[in-house]
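ok so heres the complex, two chains, lmk if somethin looks off
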Amino acid sequence: MSQPDEFVKEFLVESREGLDRLDGDLIALEANPRDVERCDSAFRSLHTIKGNAGFLDFHRLGQLAHAGENVLQQIRAGELQLNATITDALLELLDALRRMLLTIEKSASEGSDRFDDVEKKLRGLSETSDAASAPPSRADDAFTPTMTFALEEGEPNVEFPGPQSPDFDMATIARPLSKGDLSEVQAGSKAKLPKPPPAKREEPPSSEVNSIFESTGSLFGTSDSATDYGSSHAGSAASSLVRVDVHLLDRLMNLVGELVLARNQIVETFGNQTDKSMTNPVQRLNLLTSELQEGVLKTRMQQIRSIWHRYPRMVRDLAHNCRKDVSLHVEGDTTELDKTLLEALTDPLLHLIRNAIDHGLESPDERKKRGKSPQGRLSLRAWHQGGHVHIEVADDGAGLDTVRIREKAIQRGLITAVQGATMSNDELHPLVFAAGFSTSRTITSLSGRGVGLDVVRTNIEDIGGTVDIDSVPGQSTTVHITLPLTLAIVPALIIRQSEQRYAIPQVNVIELICLEGAEATNPGELFHNAPVFRLRGEVLPLLWLSEIFGRGIQRADEDSEDGLSIVVVQAGARRFALVVDSVSGTEEIVVKPIGCVLDSLIFYTGATIMGDGTVALILDIPGVARHAGLLVRMQGVAEQSPSTIARPGKSRENLLVCQVGRRRIGLPLAEVTRLTSASRDGIEFAGQREVLQVEGELLPLLRTHKLLGEPANLTEPDRLPVVVHRSGHGTVGLIVDRILDIVEQPDDCREHSLGDSVRAAVVDGKVTDLIDVSRLIGNAGRESAEAIEPVPSS
Amino acid sequence: MTLKQEQGELCTFELDGLLFGIDVQQTQEIITDQPVTPVPLAAHMVRGLVNLRGQIVTAIDLRECLGLTARPEGSRMVNLIVQHEGEPVSFLVDRMGDVISVDGSMFEPSPETLDRAVIELIRGACKLSDRLLLILDAGQIVRHAAALHAAPLSAATA
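and the predicted structre for the whole thing:
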């Protein structure tokens, strides 16, 4: 089939706008059935679609629209009273029309799906109009079966919940409603659903803005309710707007960006001159350029309501579906955002709203039990602050269940049990965004939350934003999204490598580290033949950017004053340390495409033009990570690592070196299961022994300095480093003063025996006791035999 | 369409003393003295990126591309901006020549003695009164450069 021609394209765009407007009108009408303007507007929208469809020879589409128009006509004439059943049927018609439009867009024909059931239902509604007071339940009985059938056939992607919500069941939206239901819904929704915004996405006349807040009265107060929707849509709005290709706007942006650069250079050169004939025009150029830049930036901006205007309907449907009573509060929907950002935001926001209604808010009964109002409150807020756009999705539901999150996170291995025991709620909340949390069915049914939140986070981060979650148990959950004003400009860290500047997007940067002196010449250590860098107990893969670029590792000179610059970066959940020549600072950069020749290189997301006009590449940290993953594996497999990394001497055994009192002790790394820390308050007593609760079990703790006869550490920190050691004697936690290093025990290491369980060796130039922990524990065990075995909890 | 039927204008330039030409319809402009930002891990003939009035353009060194002797350090080069599928790409050449009119009778197939890899990049030869001119296929050169980036390390080990 051919592509649709220009007329059809225009018809598609117009009709979709009309349908969006109809959505809003119908929801508003349901809340206030006597709103004549809304009714007229809905009728006109449908009538226009019908007329255009007839003109373009889409007969079936016209017929369907006609059926809906009849119903609306009768409502207008007062022959039919709008209720939830009729609204459902009409909304279903809108969905059917949307699907037809999609088919037309794809194949330039109406397709074979005739949506007879939808038409039949609408017919049925207009026929019953003679007995306008007929009980709605009768209509329901008659139509429910066909309705379900139609929905089973429906394409999920046409419906608003989107493809990644298989759990969303359209059929239940259209569930038969009893009379009681109806009156409750109607009474409940009165004056709480804000009027959906008009569907014209572009700047509407201000009178329309007022009418949006008519019912909430939150921003503009009450307004003239006699606003004529119909005429403003049909007349002024259409004629004062021009549709512009986004690519054209992109090009304008580009040119203006260059103009700004040129302006900067001119202002710098001529700005300080005393010659008036020169400074005046320069100043004017300066002003004009700024204004032009602002104007062009604005052309790409859209109000967030262009995606929010669908939410009243969505919230209504979802609330019906989940049998919940939800009021939606919208604030700041005139906040403007870059068009590209807005598009990328659509899915994540849908997800968050669905989560809030499905899992966050409790059922009316439960809410009553907890002493809350039976009606749940869902609020959407958007505002500008500090050069960012902030968006908040908040509900006053049950909040996050941290107990379940902790359990689940430990079960999934996201955190260790020890971490779990010591993490605060604030630290636990972000775990719901971890990948894998979403797929878990149990956490959904038990505690709610977490369905696909990792997707939300990924989507938001893809557009340079961040997302936080905040929750008060039993009271509320708030998801806070922060976005840059525009995708085109991102804050970035500028680094230098081999005389060139590179930009690393700030979202990927965790922290900067500068090593000096001896540390700089030998920053990492080897772990299974891969260089790693230890950052406060966390072991990170260590990479040299110069090596990634195929130039080999350039080690810092011992006496170099600059030190070694390490950028700790994050790609998804993965962190690594990147050694660069130097760090220049942060800058707001304009991301530009890198061109077709270099598109296939995974290391760069694009390039940018620096203030002096030269080009700098933007590093793609996930791309670098992928490359790095390969590097590490290669070195493990093929032993072809650059010799500069590998330390001389073949490895025999890795030792974990710790400080205990005055002594350095070395523990065989093979026996160490993990390193962790315990807060002093977290240490409890079981009998005479100190224990730590871990995964519901008790981890016996041993004060290593006591075992070794060292004096107790008087300046004990709040968090004690714990080496979890597993051997034939079970698992114990060894409290040490400090975890120093992981080193390889060299081949030629001479051991000096100093008694039963202690041998000493010179490791890295220092005397280190090689501890046989099993022996040591055995000695301690004789003192208090029963407590040393791990005690399973009841 | 074969070369024999073509006629039109060629934009000529020199590389390592040889004369080359590109269909003038494909060329956009010439810029000189642009700082070039190198792109690590890109194909060897990709010299780097240049800033063309705010647009970032990849510069391909035609000497590298055609396997000619490397350009001496510090020697001047000219960016010949060509349009490839609606996007500008820069070809780095030694010196620009004239725009000349040619017709089909002057064309010859490429000399068969040329390197196999290079032959794909050349559409044919053109006998001028005093010297031979090789006509380059700009599209092929760009595709060639785009396909030759550093292979992922996994492929190297396999």
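quick notes: Residues 130-238, 438-451, 630-651, 782-794 of chain A have pLDDT under 50 and may be disordered. thats all i got rn
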